[in-house]
Amino acid sequence: MSSTPSAASSIEADRIADQLERAFEGDAWSGPTVTEILSGISAEQAAARPVAAAHSIWEIVLHATAWQRTVRERLQGHPVEPLADDQDWPRVADASESAWAGTLRNLRAEYELLRREAEAWRDRDLSLTPGGERYTAYEMLHGVIQHIYYHAGQITILKKAQA
Questions:
Q1: Residue 8 falls inside a structural domain
Q2: How far apart are CA 160 and CA 162, in angstroms?
Q3: Quick one: CA torsion of 49, 150, 116, 131, rounded to 10 degrees?
Q4: Considering the domain boundaries, does residue 102 fall inside one?
Q5: How many domains is the chain built from?
Q6: Is residue 5 situated within a structural domain?
Q7: What are phi and psi of 41, to 5 degrees?
């Protein structure tokens, strides 16, 4: 058997999906995963603004959820208009514990849908620009992972500012 990947291989695509999983809930080399960072945060902590003029943890989670959904839809070839400000950075309408739990469930649900989408890609298709997007599938998948890590760092700082 040749060590050269076949046209239908998914070696790189599988590695990308693995990195997505590591960022969200796996064994991240960089430190705690998003799931670990968000564990134990109350609605009050999530809605707090310990850093002046910064987004709250809750707003960051809503933003990350919106971008996971947007990337997934773009990867699926759906044309997605640029997000309006209120879609990109949604406001917290209800600061209750049940609303926070719902926000976390939505984040996880979008992550799981995005992960399944990432797992469906094959190496030969990573250079495609789905739906006429500006970015390739490869760039979007790596970009969403970078986005997760970036905001995980912000959440960590906001969490520590409240300790």
A1: no
A2: 5
A3: 100
A4: yes
A5: 1
A6: no
A7: -80, 125
Give the whole-angstrom CA distance, residue 71 versus residue 137.
Answer: 9
pLDDT, one tens digit per residue, over 80-128 is 889 999 999 999 999 999 999 999 999 999 999 999 999 999 999 999 9
Residue 32 has pLDDT above 50, yes or no: yes
Does 36 reside within a domain?
yes
Ramachandran category for residue 21: left, alpha or beta (phi over 0 → left; psi -120 to 50 → alpha): alpha
CATH number at residue 107: 1.20.120.450
The CA R_g of the chain, rounded to the nearest whole Å, is: 17
The closest of 158, 124, 155, 132 to 37, measured between CA atoms, is 155
Cα dihedral: 53, 38, 46, 149 (round 10): 20
Which residue segment(s) compose the domain that 42 sits in?
13-161
Residue 59 dihedral angles phi and psi, to the nearest 5°: -60, -40
Helix, strand, coil percent content, the chain, rounded in steps of 5: 65, 0, 35
